[in-house]
Protein backbone atom coordinates (compact mmCIF):
# COMPACT_ATOMS: atom_id res chain seq x y z
CA UNK A 1 0.00 0.00 0.00
CA UNK A 2 1.19 3.45 -0.87
CA UNK A 3 0.06 6.24 1.42
CA UNK A 4 0.78 9.73 2.59
CA UNK A 5 -1.35 11.44 5.20
CA UNK A 6 -3.90 9.51 7.24
CA UNK A 7 -4.97 6.02 6.22
CA UNK A 8 -8.22 4.11 6.75
CA UNK A 9 -8.25 1.56 9.53
CA UNK A 10 -9.44 -1.87 8.42
CA UNK A 11 -12.91 -2.62 9.76
CA UNK A 12 -13.02 -4.99 12.77
CA UNK A 13 -14.96 -7.54 10.74
CA UNK A 14 -13.02 -7.18 7.53
CA UNK A 15 -9.29 -7.58 6.98
CA UNK A 16 -9.47 -5.35 3.91
CA UNK A 17 -6.73 -2.83 3.39
CA UNK A 18 -6.50 -0.45 0.47
CA UNK A 19 -4.31 -1.43 -2.43
CA UNK A 20 -3.55 2.26 -2.77
CA UNK A 21 -4.46 5.13 -0.48
CA UNK A 22 -3.11 8.55 -1.44
CA UNK A 23 -3.85 11.62 0.66
CA UNK A 24 -2.05 14.84 1.43
CA UNK A 25 -1.29 15.89 5.03
CA UNK A 26 -3.85 18.18 6.65
CA UNK A 27 -4.62 19.80 10.02
CA UNK A 28 -8.33 20.66 9.74
CA UNK A 29 -11.32 18.97 8.12
CA UNK A 30 -15.05 19.49 7.62
CA UNK A 31 -15.40 15.77 7.06
CA UNK A 32 -15.61 15.00 10.78
CA UNK A 33 -18.65 17.29 11.07
CA UNK A 34 -20.29 15.57 8.11
CA UNK A 35 -19.49 12.14 9.56
CA UNK A 36 -21.00 13.12 12.92
CA UNK A 37 -24.20 14.13 11.09
CA UNK A 38 -24.51 10.83 9.20
CA UNK A 39 -26.69 9.02 11.82
CA UNK A 40 -29.25 11.83 11.69
CA UNK A 41 -29.43 11.20 7.91
CA UNK A 42 -30.08 7.52 8.50
CA UNK A 43 -26.55 6.21 7.90
CA UNK A 44 -24.17 4.46 10.28
CA UNK A 45 -20.63 4.80 8.97
CA UNK A 46 -17.81 2.38 9.66
CA UNK A 47 -14.15 3.24 10.08
CA UNK A 48 -13.03 3.33 6.47
CA UNK A 49 -15.99 5.54 5.51
CA UNK A 50 -15.36 8.02 8.33
CA UNK A 51 -11.67 8.22 7.46
CA UNK A 52 -12.46 8.77 3.81
CA UNK A 53 -14.85 11.60 4.71
CA UNK A 54 -12.24 13.27 6.89
CA UNK A 55 -9.60 13.23 4.16
CA UNK A 56 -12.11 14.31 1.50
CA UNK A 57 -13.20 17.23 3.66
CA UNK A 58 -9.71 18.43 4.62
CA UNK A 59 -9.18 22.21 4.21
CA UNK A 60 -6.10 24.41 4.37
CA UNK A 61 -5.60 27.63 6.33
CA UNK A 62 -7.56 29.60 3.70
CA UNK A 63 -10.50 27.19 3.85
CA UNK A 64 -9.74 25.68 0.43
CA UNK A 65 -9.90 21.94 -0.22
CA UNK A 66 -6.64 20.11 0.33
CA UNK A 67 -7.93 17.65 -2.27
CA UNK A 68 -9.73 19.44 -5.13
CA UNK A 69 -9.88 16.05 -6.86
CA UNK A 70 -11.07 12.90 -5.09
CA UNK A 71 -11.31 9.39 -6.49
CA UNK A 72 -12.38 6.05 -5.06
CA UNK A 73 -12.38 2.64 -6.72
CA UNK A 74 -14.28 0.40 -4.33
CA UNK A 75 -16.02 -2.93 -5.11
CA UNK A 76 -19.78 -3.01 -5.44
CA UNK A 77 -22.06 -3.20 -2.41
CA UNK A 78 -19.44 -1.76 -0.06
CA UNK A 79 -21.21 1.54 0.56
CA UNK A 80 -19.03 3.92 -1.44
CA UNK A 81 -22.09 6.01 -2.35
CA UNK A 82 -22.97 6.47 1.32
CA UNK A 83 -19.98 8.73 1.99
CA UNK A 84 -20.86 10.83 -1.01
CA UNK A 85 -24.54 11.15 -0.05
CA UNK A 86 -23.57 12.31 3.44
CA UNK A 87 -20.92 14.69 2.09
CA UNK A 88 -23.15 16.24 -0.57
CA UNK A 89 -26.07 16.62 1.85
CA UNK A 90 -23.83 18.42 4.33
CA UNK A 91 -22.23 20.68 1.71
CA UNK A 92 -25.54 21.71 0.13
CA UNK A 93 -27.86 21.96 3.15
CA UNK A 94 -25.38 23.30 5.71
CA UNK A 95 -22.51 24.94 3.82
CA UNK A 96 -24.48 26.42 0.91
CA UNK A 97 -22.57 24.67 -1.88
CA UNK A 98 -24.09 24.05 -5.29
CA UNK A 99 -23.50 20.39 -6.16
CA UNK A 100 -24.02 18.46 -9.39
CA UNK A 101 -24.60 14.73 -8.95
CA UNK A 102 -24.15 12.88 -12.26
CA UNK A 103 -24.88 9.27 -13.24
CA UNK A 104 -24.44 7.33 -16.48
CA UNK A 105 -28.06 6.11 -16.69
CA UNK A 106 -31.32 7.89 -15.92
CA UNK A 107 -32.59 4.96 -13.82
CA UNK A 108 -29.55 5.24 -11.55
CA UNK A 109 -30.01 9.01 -11.38
CA UNK A 110 -33.56 8.49 -10.14
CA UNK A 111 -32.41 5.92 -7.59
CA UNK A 112 -29.95 8.45 -6.13
CA UNK A 113 -32.63 11.16 -6.11
CA UNK A 114 -34.82 8.77 -4.13
CA UNK A 115 -32.07 8.35 -1.51
CA UNK A 116 -31.73 12.12 -1.08
CA UNK A 117 -35.51 12.43 -0.79
CA UNK A 118 -35.34 9.99 2.13
CA UNK A 119 -33.21 12.62 3.89
CA UNK A 120 -34.88 15.88 2.81
CA UNK A 121 -38.34 14.85 1.63
CA UNK A 122 -39.85 15.00 -1.83
CA UNK A 123 -40.94 18.61 -1.44
CA UNK A 124 -40.68 21.38 1.23
CA UNK A 125 -42.45 20.48 4.49
CA UNK A 126 -42.95 16.88 3.35
CA UNK A 127 -44.39 14.97 6.32
CA UNK A 128 -44.17 11.53 4.71
CA UNK A 129 -40.48 11.56 3.72
CA UNK A 130 -37.37 13.15 5.14
CA UNK A 131 -35.43 13.06 8.40
CA UNK A 132 -36.04 15.43 11.35
CA UNK A 133 -33.76 18.46 11.18
CA UNK A 134 -33.05 17.90 7.49
CA UNK A 135 -36.48 18.10 5.86
CA UNK A 136 -36.75 21.64 7.32
CA UNK A 137 -33.74 22.72 5.24
CA UNK A 138 -35.46 22.03 1.90
CA UNK A 139 -37.03 25.17 0.40
CA UNK A 140 -37.51 24.45 -3.30
CA UNK A 141 -37.54 21.57 -5.77
CA UNK A 142 -37.73 20.99 -9.49
CA UNK A 143 -39.18 17.66 -10.61
CA UNK A 144 -39.04 18.23 -14.36
CA UNK A 145 -37.66 15.14 -16.08
CA UNK A 146 -33.88 15.29 -16.54
CA UNK A 147 -33.68 18.61 -14.66
CA UNK A 148 -34.39 17.50 -11.09
CA UNK A 149 -32.87 19.61 -8.30
CA UNK A 150 -33.26 20.52 -4.63
CA UNK A 151 -32.73 23.98 -3.11
CA UNK A 152 -31.96 24.70 0.56
CA UNK A 153 -32.17 27.51 3.16
CA UNK A 154 -28.39 27.79 3.04
CA UNK A 155 -28.51 28.78 -0.62
CA UNK A 156 -27.11 25.41 -1.60
CA UNK A 157 -28.42 23.25 -4.43
CA UNK A 158 -28.18 19.61 -5.48
CA UNK A 159 -28.93 19.00 -9.15
CA UNK A 160 -29.22 15.48 -10.54
CA UNK A 161 -28.18 14.80 -14.12
CA UNK A 162 -27.70 11.88 -16.46
CA UNK A 163 -24.50 12.37 -18.43
CA UNK A 164 -25.04 13.09 -22.12
CA UNK A 165 -23.19 14.97 -24.82
CA UNK A 166 -25.50 17.93 -24.23
CA UNK A 167 -26.61 17.82 -20.60
CA UNK A 168 -29.01 20.64 -19.62
CA UNK A 169 -27.67 22.14 -16.41
CA UNK A 170 -29.28 25.04 -14.63
CA UNK A 171 -26.54 26.24 -12.25
CA UNK A 172 -22.86 26.99 -11.87
CA UNK A 173 -21.47 24.35 -9.53
CA UNK A 174 -18.94 24.25 -6.73
CA UNK A 175 -18.78 20.46 -6.50
CA UNK A 176 -19.32 17.75 -9.12
CA UNK A 177 -19.86 14.10 -8.23
CA UNK A 178 -19.14 11.68 -11.07
CA UNK A 179 -20.81 8.53 -9.75
CA UNK A 180 -20.32 5.35 -11.81
CA UNK A 181 -17.14 7.04 -13.02
CA UNK A 182 -16.03 3.90 -14.87
CA UNK A 183 -18.47 5.00 -17.62
CA UNK A 184 -17.20 8.60 -17.77
CA UNK A 185 -15.79 9.79 -21.10
CA UNK A 186 -13.90 12.90 -22.10
CA UNK A 187 -16.98 14.12 -23.98
CA UNK A 188 -19.00 14.11 -20.76
CA UNK A 189 -16.31 16.04 -18.90
CA UNK A 190 -16.10 18.65 -21.65
CA UNK A 191 -19.81 19.33 -21.21
CA UNK A 192 -19.87 19.41 -17.41
CA UNK A 193 -16.57 20.89 -16.22
CA UNK A 194 -17.18 24.36 -17.79
CA UNK A 195 -20.13 24.74 -15.39
CA UNK A 196 -17.65 24.87 -12.49
CA UNK A 197 -15.63 27.90 -13.61
CA UNK A 198 -17.96 30.43 -11.97
CA UNK A 199 -18.99 28.57 -8.82
CA UNK A 200 -19.84 31.07 -6.08
CA UNK A 201 -17.64 29.40 -3.46
CA UNK A 202 -14.53 29.49 -5.66
CA UNK A 203 -13.59 26.20 -4.05
CA UNK A 204 -14.06 23.50 -6.67
CA UNK A 205 -14.07 19.81 -5.83
CA UNK A 206 -14.40 17.04 -8.43
CA UNK A 207 -15.28 13.59 -7.08
CA UNK A 208 -14.91 10.37 -9.11
CA UNK A 209 -16.42 7.18 -7.67
CA UNK A 210 -16.78 3.82 -9.34
CA UNK A 211 -15.50 0.34 -10.01
CA UNK A 212 -12.68 -0.54 -12.46
CA UNK A 213 -13.25 0.53 -16.04
CA UNK A 214 -14.53 -2.51 -17.93
CA UNK A 215 -13.12 -4.14 -21.01
CA UNK A 216 -14.41 -2.66 -24.23
CA UNK A 217 -15.73 0.53 -22.62
CA UNK A 218 -14.17 3.68 -24.14
CA UNK A 219 -14.30 5.57 -20.84
CA UNK A 220 -10.81 6.89 -20.27
CA UNK A 221 -11.29 9.57 -17.58
CA UNK A 222 -11.49 7.36 -14.49
CA UNK A 223 -8.62 5.21 -15.76
CA UNK A 224 -6.48 8.33 -16.29
CA UNK A 225 -7.21 9.68 -12.81
CA UNK A 226 -6.19 6.35 -11.35
CA UNK A 227 -2.99 6.28 -13.38
CA UNK A 228 -2.03 9.69 -12.00
CA UNK A 229 -2.54 8.41 -8.46
CA UNK A 230 -0.32 5.40 -9.09
CA UNK A 231 2.41 7.45 -10.72
CA UNK A 232 2.40 10.03 -7.91
CA UNK A 233 4.50 13.17 -8.18
CA UNK A 234 3.32 16.64 -9.11
CA UNK A 235 0.35 15.55 -11.23
CA UNK A 236 -1.24 13.90 -8.18
CA UNK A 237 -0.46 16.68 -5.69
CA UNK A 238 -4.12 17.81 -5.66
CA UNK A 239 -5.53 14.28 -5.75
CA UNK A 240 -6.89 11.96 -3.09
CA UNK A 241 -7.31 8.34 -4.18
CA UNK A 242 -8.68 5.26 -2.40
CA UNK A 243 -8.59 1.83 -4.04
CA UNK A 244 -9.57 -1.62 -2.81
CA UNK A 245 -9.02 -4.56 -5.12
CA UNK A 246 -7.24 -7.76 -6.08
CA UNK A 247 -4.09 -7.85 -8.21
CA UNK A 248 -5.26 -10.79 -10.34
CA UNK A 249 -8.57 -12.35 -11.28
CA UNK A 250 -7.81 -15.65 -9.53
CA UNK A 251 -10.67 -17.68 -8.06
CA UNK A 252 -13.56 -15.24 -7.81
CA UNK A 253 -15.53 -17.64 -5.59
CA UNK A 254 -12.80 -17.93 -2.95
CA UNK A 255 -14.46 -15.99 -0.13
CA UNK A 256 -11.20 -15.69 1.79
CA UNK A 257 -10.13 -13.23 -0.91
CA UNK A 258 -13.33 -11.21 -0.42
CA UNK A 259 -12.36 -10.28 3.11
CA UNK A 260 -9.09 -8.81 1.87
CA UNK A 261 -10.70 -6.37 -0.61
CA UNK A 262 -14.26 -5.72 0.65
CA UNK A 263 -13.99 -3.20 3.49
CA UNK A 264 -17.66 -3.42 4.49
CA UNK A 265 -18.00 -7.20 4.47
CA UNK A 266 -19.44 -8.28 7.78
CA UNK A 267 -21.07 -4.90 8.27
CA UNK A 268 -23.63 -3.74 5.70
CA UNK A 269 -22.12 -5.75 2.82
CA UNK A 270 -24.02 -9.02 2.34
CA UNK A 271 -22.03 -12.03 1.08
CA UNK A 272 -25.22 -13.73 -0.09
CA UNK A 273 -26.14 -10.75 -2.29
CA UNK A 274 -22.60 -10.63 -3.66
CA UNK A 275 -22.74 -14.31 -4.64
CA UNK A 276 -26.08 -13.79 -6.36
CA UNK A 277 -24.79 -10.77 -8.25
CA UNK A 278 -21.73 -12.63 -9.52
CA UNK A 279 -23.55 -15.73 -10.81
CA UNK A 280 -24.63 -14.25 -14.14
CA UNK A 281 -21.28 -12.59 -14.88
CA UNK A 282 -18.13 -13.92 -16.48
CA UNK A 283 -14.98 -14.13 -14.39
CA UNK A 284 -13.47 -10.87 -15.62
CA UNK A 285 -16.66 -8.87 -15.15
CA UNK A 286 -17.23 -10.27 -11.65
CA UNK A 287 -13.61 -9.67 -10.65
CA UNK A 288 -13.84 -6.05 -11.77
CA UNK A 289 -17.21 -5.24 -10.24
CA UNK A 290 -17.00 -7.18 -6.97
CA UNK A 291 -13.25 -7.67 -6.38
CA UNK A 292 -11.95 -4.36 -7.72
CA UNK A 293 -9.68 -5.90 -10.38
CA UNK A 294 -8.17 -3.38 -12.81
CA UNK A 295 -7.01 -4.51 -16.22
CA UNK A 296 -3.19 -4.81 -16.34
CA UNK A 297 -2.71 -1.97 -18.86
CA UNK A 298 -3.85 0.49 -16.28
CA UNK A 299 -0.78 -0.10 -14.15
CA UNK A 300 1.67 -1.07 -16.84
CA UNK A 301 1.42 -4.73 -15.92
CA UNK A 302 2.00 -7.75 -18.12
CA UNK A 303 3.25 -7.24 -21.70
CA UNK A 304 0.94 -8.10 -24.62
CA UNK A 305 0.86 -11.76 -25.61
CA UNK A 306 1.50 -10.96 -29.28
CA UNK A 307 3.96 -8.39 -30.58
CA UNK A 308 3.29 -6.23 -33.62
CA UNK A 309 6.09 -8.00 -35.46
CA UNK A 310 4.56 -11.43 -34.81
CA UNK A 311 1.15 -10.24 -35.94
CA UNK A 312 2.48 -8.57 -39.11
CA UNK A 313 4.37 -11.74 -40.03
CA UNK A 314 1.03 -13.53 -40.48
CA UNK A 315 -0.47 -10.88 -42.76
CA UNK A 316 -1.36 -11.66 -46.39
CA UNK A 317 -2.50 -9.15 -49.06
CA UNK A 318 -5.88 -10.79 -49.62
CA UNK A 319 -8.00 -13.63 -48.37
CA UNK A 320 -7.50 -16.95 -50.17
CA UNK A 321 -10.17 -17.48 -52.86
CA UNK A 322 -13.00 -19.92 -52.07
CA UNK A 323 -12.22 -23.52 -52.97
CA UNK A 324 -13.95 -26.89 -52.98
CA UNK A 325 -13.53 -28.80 -49.75
CA UNK A 326 -12.67 -25.83 -47.51
CA UNK A 327 -14.14 -25.65 -44.02
CA UNK A 328 -15.65 -22.50 -42.52
CA UNK A 329 -16.52 -21.63 -38.91
CA UNK A 330 -17.55 -18.55 -36.96
CA UNK A 331 -16.56 -17.33 -33.52
CA UNK A 332 -18.68 -14.87 -31.57
CA UNK A 333 -17.49 -13.16 -28.40
CA UNK A 334 -19.40 -10.71 -26.21
CA UNK A 335 -17.49 -8.26 -24.01
CA UNK A 336 -17.57 -8.71 -20.25
CA UNK A 337 -20.28 -6.08 -19.79
CA UNK A 338 -22.24 -7.17 -22.86
CA UNK A 339 -21.85 -3.80 -24.59
CA UNK A 340 -19.81 -5.08 -27.57
CA UNK A 341 -19.85 -8.18 -29.74
CA UNK A 342 -17.20 -9.45 -32.16
CA UNK A 343 -17.66 -12.05 -34.91
CA UNK A 344 -14.75 -13.66 -36.73
CA UNK A 345 -14.69 -16.10 -39.60
CA UNK A 346 -12.09 -18.86 -39.87
CA UNK A 347 -11.42 -20.77 -43.09
CA UNK A 348 -9.46 -24.01 -43.47
CA UNK A 349 -8.63 -24.75 -47.14
CA UNK A 350 -7.76 -28.28 -48.27
CA UNK A 351 -4.14 -27.13 -48.47
CA UNK A 352 -2.32 -24.27 -46.84
CA UNK A 353 -2.79 -22.26 -43.66
CA UNK A 354 -5.94 -21.43 -41.73
CA UNK A 355 -7.22 -17.91 -42.35
CA UNK A 356 -9.04 -15.59 -39.91
CA UNK A 357 -10.99 -12.40 -40.59
CA UNK A 358 -12.99 -10.03 -38.44
CA UNK A 359 -16.52 -9.62 -39.79
CA UNK A 360 -18.13 -7.51 -37.06
CA UNK A 361 -17.10 -5.53 -34.00
CA UNK A 362 -20.28 -3.77 -33.01
CA UNK A 363 -22.13 -2.34 -30.00
CA UNK A 364 -25.06 -4.43 -28.82
CA UNK A 365 -27.35 -1.45 -28.40
CA UNK A 366 -29.54 -2.63 -31.32
CA UNK A 367 -29.97 -6.10 -29.85
CA UNK A 368 -28.87 -9.47 -31.20
CA UNK A 369 -31.65 -10.19 -33.70
CA UNK A 370 -29.65 -8.91 -36.67
CA UNK A 371 -26.66 -11.05 -35.65
CA UNK A 372 -28.81 -14.15 -35.27
CA UNK A 373 -30.21 -13.61 -38.78
CA UNK A 374 -26.71 -13.22 -40.21
CA UNK A 375 -25.47 -16.43 -38.57
CA UNK A 376 -28.59 -18.40 -39.49
CA UNK A 377 -28.36 -17.43 -43.17
CA UNK A 378 -24.92 -19.08 -43.35
CA UNK A 379 -25.77 -22.33 -41.63
CA UNK A 380 -25.80 -24.23 -44.92
CA UNK A 381 -22.20 -23.38 -45.69
CA UNK A 382 -20.44 -23.36 -42.33
CA UNK A 383 -19.66 -26.11 -39.87
CA UNK A 384 -20.10 -24.26 -36.60
CA UNK A 385 -20.77 -20.97 -34.82
CA UNK A 386 -19.06 -20.94 -31.40
CA UNK A 387 -20.61 -18.30 -29.12
CA UNK A 388 -19.13 -17.19 -25.79
CA UNK A 389 -19.70 -14.50 -23.18
CA UNK A 390 -22.18 -14.61 -20.33
CA UNK A 391 -23.60 -11.20 -21.13
CA UNK A 392 -25.37 -11.51 -24.46
CA UNK A 393 -24.45 -15.04 -25.52
CA UNK A 394 -27.54 -16.54 -23.92
CA UNK A 395 -29.90 -14.18 -25.71
CA UNK A 396 -28.19 -14.84 -29.05
CA UNK A 397 -28.32 -18.62 -28.63
CA UNK A 398 -31.97 -18.43 -27.62
CA UNK A 399 -32.77 -16.46 -30.75
CA UNK A 400 -30.87 -18.94 -32.93
CA UNK A 401 -32.79 -21.80 -31.31
CA UNK A 402 -36.02 -20.07 -32.30
CA UNK A 403 -34.72 -19.95 -35.86
CA UNK A 404 -34.29 -23.79 -35.76
CA UNK A 405 -30.59 -24.07 -36.51
CA UNK A 406 -29.19 -27.43 -37.67
CA UNK A 407 -27.99 -29.77 -34.95
CA UNK A 408 -24.40 -29.05 -33.96
CA UNK A 409 -24.19 -25.70 -35.75
CA UNK A 410 -24.47 -23.49 -32.65
CA UNK A 411 -22.08 -24.33 -29.80
CA UNK A 412 -21.42 -22.64 -26.44
CA UNK A 413 -17.89 -23.64 -25.37
CA UNK A 414 -17.15 -24.68 -21.81
CA UNK A 415 -14.49 -22.88 -19.76
CA UNK A 416 -11.92 -25.52 -20.75
CA UNK A 417 -12.87 -25.17 -24.40
CA UNK A 418 -12.54 -21.37 -24.16
CA UNK A 419 -9.00 -21.92 -22.86
CA UNK A 420 -8.31 -24.19 -25.85
CA UNK A 421 -9.67 -21.51 -28.18
CA UNK A 422 -7.32 -18.89 -26.73
CA UNK A 423 -4.40 -21.25 -27.12
CA UNK A 424 -5.37 -22.11 -30.70
CA UNK A 425 -5.07 -18.59 -32.06
CA UNK A 426 -2.03 -17.78 -29.93
CA UNK A 427 -0.11 -20.79 -31.20
CA UNK A 428 -1.28 -20.12 -34.74
CA UNK A 429 0.26 -16.64 -34.60
CA UNK A 430 3.45 -17.81 -32.93
CA UNK A 431 4.02 -20.55 -35.51
CA UNK A 432 2.70 -18.53 -38.48
CA UNK A 433 0.24 -21.31 -39.22
CA UNK A 434 -2.61 -18.82 -39.52
CA UNK A 435 -3.05 -15.85 -41.86
CA UNK A 436 -5.04 -12.62 -41.78
CA UNK A 437 -5.54 -9.54 -43.92
CA UNK A 438 -4.83 -6.03 -42.67
CA UNK A 439 -7.50 -5.06 -40.14
CA UNK A 440 -6.95 -2.30 -37.60
CA UNK A 441 -9.47 -3.54 -35.03
CA UNK A 442 -8.34 -7.17 -35.12
CA UNK A 443 -4.68 -6.14 -35.08
CA UNK A 444 -5.22 -3.84 -32.10
CA UNK A 445 -7.00 -6.59 -30.23
CA UNK A 446 -4.23 -9.10 -30.92
CA UNK A 447 -1.29 -6.83 -30.06
CA UNK A 448 -2.70 -5.16 -26.92
CA UNK A 449 -4.31 -8.13 -25.17
CA UNK A 450 -2.60 -9.72 -22.18
CA UNK A 451 -2.80 -13.07 -20.44
CA UNK A 452 -5.90 -13.46 -18.23
CA UNK A 453 -6.01 -16.33 -15.76
CA UNK A 454 -9.02 -18.65 -15.99
CA UNK A 455 -9.80 -21.03 -13.13
CA UNK A 456 -7.28 -22.61 -10.79
CA UNK A 457 -5.64 -25.14 -13.10
CA UNK A 458 -3.35 -22.79 -15.01
CA UNK A 459 -5.75 -22.01 -17.86
CA UNK A 460 -5.70 -18.59 -19.45
CA UNK A 461 -7.60 -16.40 -21.88
CA UNK A 462 -7.16 -13.05 -23.58
CA UNK A 463 -7.55 -9.99 -21.35
CA UNK A 464 -7.12 -6.25 -21.64
CA UNK A 465 -9.13 -3.35 -22.99
CA UNK A 466 -10.14 -4.86 -26.37
CA UNK A 467 -9.78 -8.65 -26.34
CA UNK A 468 -13.11 -9.52 -27.99
CA UNK A 469 -11.94 -9.60 -31.62
CA UNK A 470 -8.96 -11.91 -31.04
CA UNK A 471 -11.08 -14.04 -28.71
CA UNK A 472 -13.66 -14.43 -31.48
CA UNK A 473 -10.87 -15.47 -33.85
CA UNK A 474 -9.74 -18.11 -31.38
CA UNK A 475 -13.29 -19.44 -31.03
CA UNK A 476 -13.58 -19.72 -34.81
CA UNK A 477 -10.29 -21.63 -35.07
CA UNK A 478 -11.32 -23.91 -32.22
CA UNK A 479 -14.61 -24.61 -34.00
CA UNK A 480 -12.75 -25.52 -37.20
CA UNK A 481 -10.77 -28.18 -35.39
CA UNK A 482 -13.50 -29.57 -33.16
CA UNK A 483 -16.74 -29.46 -35.13
CA UNK A 484 -17.65 -32.69 -36.87
CA UNK A 485 -20.26 -30.94 -38.94
CA UNK A 486 -19.02 -30.11 -42.43
CA UNK A 487 -21.91 -29.39 -44.83
CA UNK A 488 -21.50 -29.66 -48.54
CA UNK A 489 -20.25 -26.41 -49.93
CA UNK A 490 -20.80 -24.41 -53.07
CA UNK A 491 -18.74 -21.42 -52.03
CA UNK A 492 -17.64 -19.59 -48.97
CA UNK A 493 -20.37 -18.78 -46.46
CA UNK A 494 -19.04 -15.48 -45.36
List the helices and strands and how they pair.
Blueprint: E1 20-22, E2 28-29, H1 31-41, H2 47-56, E3 58-59, E4 69-73, H3 80-93, E5 98-103, H4 106-120, E6 138-142, E7 149-152, E8 157-162, E9 175-179, H5 186-192, E10 205-210, H6 220-231, E11 239-243, H7 255-261, H8 271-279, H9 283-291, H10 308-312, E12 327-334, E13 340-348, E14 354-363, H11 369-376, E15 384-388, H12 393-402, E16 410-411, H13 415-430, E17 434-436, H14 440-448, E18 450-454, E19 459-463, H15 468-482
Parallel strand pairs: 4-10, 4-11, 5-8, 5-9, 9-10, 12-15, 14-17, 15-16
Antiparallel strand pairs: 1-11, 2-3, 6-7, 7-8, 12-13, 13-14, 18-19
Helix pairs in contact: 1-2, 1-3, 2-3, 8-9, 11-12, 13-15
How many discrete domains?
2
Helix share bin: 25-40%
CATH topology of the largest domain: Rossmann fold
Name the beta content range: 15-25%
Briefly note the structural class of the backbone. alpha/beta
CA-to-CA gap between the ends?
52 Å
Spatially, the strands of the biggest sheet line up as: 1-11-4-10-9-5-8-7-6
DSSP E strands, number: 19
Overview of this protein structure:
The chain has 494 residues and is α/β, with parallel strands linked by helices. It has 2 domains: 280 residues, 3-Layer(aba) Sandwich (Rossmann fold), CATH 3.40.50; 175 residues, 2-Layer Sandwich (Nucleotidyltransferase, domain 5). Helix content is 32%, strand content 19%. The strands form 4 sheets. The chain has a 9-stranded mixed beta sheet with strand order 1-11-4-10-9-5-8-7-6, with helices on both faces. A 6-stranded mixed beta sheet has the order 16-15-12-13-14-17, sandwiched between helices. The radius of gyration is 26 Å and the shape is elongated. The N terminus is likely disordered.
Amino acid sequence: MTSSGSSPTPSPRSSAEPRLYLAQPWERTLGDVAAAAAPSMGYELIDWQRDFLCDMGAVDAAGKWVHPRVGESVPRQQGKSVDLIVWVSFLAAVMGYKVLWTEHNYSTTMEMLKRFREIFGKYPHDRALGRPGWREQLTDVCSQTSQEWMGFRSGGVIQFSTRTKSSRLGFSFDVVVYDEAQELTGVHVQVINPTTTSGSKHNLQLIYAGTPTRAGVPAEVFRNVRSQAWRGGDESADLMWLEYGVTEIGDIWDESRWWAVMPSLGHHADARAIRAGMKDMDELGAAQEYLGYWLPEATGGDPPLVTAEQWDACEVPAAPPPSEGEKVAYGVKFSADGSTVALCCAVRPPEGRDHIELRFLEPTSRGVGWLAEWISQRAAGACCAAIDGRSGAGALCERLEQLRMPRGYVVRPTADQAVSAATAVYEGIQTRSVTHVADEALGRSATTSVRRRIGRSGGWGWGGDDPEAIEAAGLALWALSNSRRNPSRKGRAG
